[in-house]
Each structure stands twice: as structure tokens, then as C-alpha cells.
Amino acid sequence: xxxxxxxxxxxxxxxxxxxxxxxxxxxxxxxxxxxxxxxxxxxxxxxxxxxxxxxxxxxxxxxxxxxxxxxxxxxxxxxxxxxxxxxxxxxxxxxxxxxxxxxxxxxxxxxxxxxxxxxxxxxxxxxxxxxxxxxxxxxxxxxxxxxxxxxxxxxxxxxxxxxxxxxxxxxxxxxxxxxxxxxxxxxxxxxxxxxxxxxxxxxxxxxxxxxxxxxxxxxxxxxxxxxxxxxxxxxxxxxxxxxxxxxxxxxxxxxxxxxxxxxxxxxxxxxxxxxxxxxxxxxxxxxxxxxxxxxxxxxxxxxxxxxxxxxxxxxxxxxxxxxxxxxxxxxxxxxxxxxxxxxxxxxxxxxxxxxxxxxxxxxxxxxxxxxxxxxxxxxxxxxxxxxxxxxxxxxxxxxxxxxxxxxxxxxxxxxxxxxxxxxxxxxxxxxxxxxxxxxxxxxxxxxxxxxxxxxxxxxxxxxxxxxxxxxxxxxxxxxxxxxxxxxxxxxxxx
Length: 494
Ligand code: UDP
Fold this sequence. Notes:
Number of domains: 2
CATH architecture of the largest domain: 3-Layer(aba) Sandwich
Bound molecules: uridine-5'-diphosphate
Shape: globular
Number of strands: 13
CATH class of the largest domain: Alpha Beta
CATH superfamily of the largest domain: Glycogen Phosphorylase B
CATH topology of the largest domain: Rossmann fold
Largest sheet: 7 strands, parallel
Strand content: 5-15%
Oligomer: single chain
Helix content: 40-55%
Strand order of the largest sheet: 3-2-1-4-5-6-7
């Protein structure tokens, strides 16, 4: 007969090896651990594990507060130590990781030693995790860490190819795409990934990965999403026709805070950042008037050309609006080009009166600050959710994949921001910043952002839609574990 240990659900969580998926999935891991009686094994690459340990207290925090409930399983990502691991080589990173992770995961699921695995929660893009789960009879949930609207649109891509709408033939990126539920009159060819307008779409690596993801998600045991019904309900009705078993448990950032507060724990909030946060910007914000500062950050992956970087700086300075700008050391597009620190010093000197430039900010704290009046963002999903939570209107400057779809919803459906499309010359920047911070639409955008902020907070309170959905997820995981425990004991008796 197996020991009692195996009655405790053991969940493997496996994120994409990038900042925001690791952050969201670590928050999910904490939510499961807090529920009690669940053990989480977090599969992380060595490179990211080291970065987490260097820039946060994740190592000691998990050991102290989640002792016996959480462990890191560290694997190589198969890349050379000096590989830049930037999103420009996204396909290379995902494929290299597969070479290591696929056999490793299979071994973990098959192993007869130690704690038996109840289920896996894997990033939706890891199609092989779902195959292995099927092979060994262990349920695999998909966690889509980007926006539900992205998933809703992308699930329609195969149909759009069948209908002949794709690959799009004309050069006009403004052409409307029809037949995507919830996106009529909104979705344009420019919002779809590049392979949708390539001559030979299936020869493109990005196309192969995206199609694999689209086909894998409906095969998952369940689909977990980082959003809330009151925001994404309409697109969820469509997603549920592909994946009926869904759990909307977000925003996980706020959900974790709520569940920690319920337990009256002394645990300090933590960031899961891969870079060290520069907290001096909070002191600077403390000295600024209410809603006077625009926060500018393009996430952890997006890059700029040197020309764009200079246009951003000139446009911000010319606007006369105070700003806090995150300029990561790896901001420049050419993968190996590190930002010249002399240039950064010059830029900082040139805006002492009106702005602050930091290499990485405590973003959630910044957005919640009373001095912040708006957010110029790349429309990454976490940044968008964090802005919604803080009730701050946005300027969207999307570059790729989910960002392109998310900014449409932000500007045209939720009406909590304005879209700058591809215009990043200094005059356009100046105009957009002034418009957001003091233009005629500011009050309307702010009111809408604050409405969604309230709904987001309510969704993660006891009885709210995301709170209830997380309880369902935890109960379903526990049920899976009891069934497995029962089957194991039967086979021992037999
Ligand atoms: N972030 C941060 N400090 C910064 C810039 C970004 O903590 O200076 C965090 C931000 O809070 C968010 C994540 O990095 O959680 C970026 O995720 P998002 O999904 O917005 O974009 P991605 O980096 O995946 O493109």
C-alpha cells in the first residue's frame, strides 16, 4: 500500500522560460500552496533560477513559508551560457528547451520513486507536455499566461486559412478580418502574426509553434487563464466552445494578495523579477504631484532601435509631462548590443527636471502610486492587467503576437487607453502623451479604467468569479489525487 504522502496532490508547474510566464506561474504556485494540502514542483531553467535568486528573495521565501509544499526542479535550457535569450530568438529558445524538457518531463511523470505526480500545469505552447500526459495517463492543464483575447483570435486562425481569408493577399494591413467572434469590425490583418501574410506560412518557425499551440490547447485536461469574467466574459464564451473546462483565476497578482491577507500572514510581497528593482524611483514619485507622472515601460522582452529610443526620449521631454521610464540594459534591438551607459547618463542628465530613468522598476508599486496618471505600455498582458488593477489609462505601443490583439480591446472595447499604432516619431509621442495626461478624453478613459479596477478587485474577493474559479481548480486537483490514490491502493491489494 502506498504511504499517505501520495494522497497529497503533487502538481508540476512548467512555465515558458521568460520573465512574465515565470512570474504568473510562481503566483499560481503560491496560490496552490496556500490552499493547503497541495505540493508544487516548479520546473525552471537553470538560467532563470539563477536570475531569480540573484534579484529576489524567492529562494529563502519559498523555503521559509512553503517548506514541504514547494520545490524547484532545475533543468538546463540547452543554450550556451552566453546566449542572449532574447525574445528575438523565441523559437530557438522554445525548441532548445524542448530537447531537454521533453525527456525530463517524461521521466518525472513515469518515475516510480518519490512523490507521484497528480497533474501538470504547462504553458500552452508546450504541445509535447500534453502528448506525454496522454501517453502516461496523467492530466495536463494548459495555462495561457497571455491574454484570453489573443487565444480567442488565434483559435480561429485555422478556420481563416480554410476560408481563404489567410494568408492575406493584399498589402493593406488595415483590411478587416471577419468571422472572429467578439472581434467584428475591430480585428485587422496587422493584428495577426506575420506568418498569416507570408507566401509560405507553414515554412515559418513562428507559424509552426503557434499552430502547435492552437491544436494543443483544446486537448488539455483544462485551461487556466489569468483574467476575470467581468473583463473577458464575451471572448470566453467563444473559447469555451473549444475548451469547455476553463478556470479564469486572475488577475493572479491581486488574487495572491487577497489570499495572503485572508491568512493574516506576515509574508512580505515579492516580485519574482529577473532584474533588481530600483526602488529609488518610489521616493522620487513621493515628491511628485498627484497623477502628474506618466510611467513608461515596454516590458521585459520588447526592444527598440537606437532611432526609436531617441524619439521616445525627445517626445517625452517635449511633452512637458513628468515621466518615469524603464530602460532595460537589453533594450536595444540588435540582440548583443548592450545599452551604452554613457548614453544613459546623458539621457538622465537631459531630463533631470522632468523625468527619471531606471533600468527596472517595482512596476506594481509604481502603477499603484498616487503620482502616476497614466501608463505608456507595450500592451503585454501582465502590464495591461496591472494597469487595469491600478485603474490607470494607457497608451498602447504593441509590437507583436498577443500585444497586437490586446491593444485593440484596450482602445476599442474596454476603452481604457489609446493606440499609437506604429507612429513613434517624437511629434507623435509628444501628442499622445499630452492627450493621455491632459487631453479631452482623459476623464472618460480614467473612469473606464477605474470601473475595471473595481471589477478586477471584486473578482478575486471571496465569492467573486476568479476566487470561485480557483476554488474549483483546487477541488478538481484534489479529486484527481484521490482517484489516483484509490487506484494505487487497489492495484497494491490486487
Ligand atoms: N516589470 C517590472 N518592472 C519593470 C518592467 C516590467 O516588474 O521595470 C514586470 C511587470 O510588472 C510585468 C512584467 O514585468 O509583470 C512584464 O510582463 P508583460 O506580460 O507585461 O510583458 P512581457 O515582458 O512578457 O512582454
